Amino acid sequence: MPTELEELVEFLHHGNTQIRQVAIEHLVGYSTSQPLIFKAGQLTPIKDLKLLIRDYPVRSISPIKLASRDGGYGLTALQPLAKNALIMLINLSDDRDVLQNIATDDTFLESLLVRITNTKEPNANEIAMLLANMAKLDDLKRILTLTRDVPKSLSISKYAMDQLMDCFVKGAEGRYNEDANFDYLAYFFADIAKYPDGRKYFVTTQPYDSVIPLTKLTVFTEHKSTIRRRGVASTIKNVSFDIPSHPSFLSSSEINVLPYLLLPITGPEEFSEEDALSLLPDLQLLPPDKTRDSDESIITTHLETLLILTTTKEGRELMREVKVYPIVRETHLHVDDEGVQDACDRLVQVLMRDEEDEEKVIEDDDNKVVEIF
Description:
Layout: H1 4-10, H2 17-27, H3 30-33, H4 40-52, H5 81-92, H6 96-103, H7 106-116, H8 124-134, H9 160-170, H10 185-192, H11 196-202, H12 213-218, H13 226-239, H14 246-250, H15 258-262, H16 273-278, H17 296-308, H18 313-321, H19 324-334, H20 338-352, H21 355-358
């Protein structure tokens, strides 16, 4: 005999919208505490939830009773169906079977894209979170070549990836959709950047706007949103594993990433006149109240990206020329965090090493910098 909870799950596909809404309201918490109940019947509840992201809220509901052993459930104020369905899918997508089901479903992906690119979508942030989870499955890299209808209020590109980039850039701080900031798309980009094709996208000028996508992200390394800064830092790091693109990373006329990596790790400390004059222009004459990023994990990520960019001789020589070492030295002295200090040590070892020795040294397996997943 089904348990009361199992019976409640079955109401997710009930024909009455009010009953679906009451059921999902009660089930949200179970998506984290008892996720296995949503894998019943070959993932039937997951299929229901994918449909419910398109459901509308019932604006005025009288108390409803659902048949149960304790007399039923009753609610007079309910959250919108679609929002709760998305929250549950976000929670449940940690499961590999669930992730496989939702990330390989083309119809469901298009349903998400239709909504996240809609300037009036109230659940765009939740959709961004779900897309970030879905990108952990290799199948979702198909989004790099996916074409769809152009949302004219947002973009002029037919490519889904370009449209999501436009959401992230144009939609920061509610500028495109007053109900969304799209910050979690930064995590989506970081996962897409795990793939060689993804890295290639971020460093290649896109025809529709003649801009290198990574340059749209670097400007957010000092944004007020920790989520946005963290995701952007991880994306830059993952893309930097594309070694052939390092000349573009370092060129002041192309990606020009160094200022955007160094500013977040630079504090108010003063440097010697000789060092100060050699710093990048963006790092000269900083105000006395300049602060480093408050998130040590972001500082660590930037330091690891700098380390990756020392892979080439040109990268090492440029960092020595623009006095990256004094900045890293001060970061090591003023940030009391083991991860930050370890990353500083490793970068300093490379920058201070004789170039003849450097030619013989490759990071060993124990110290290898890896992509952020």
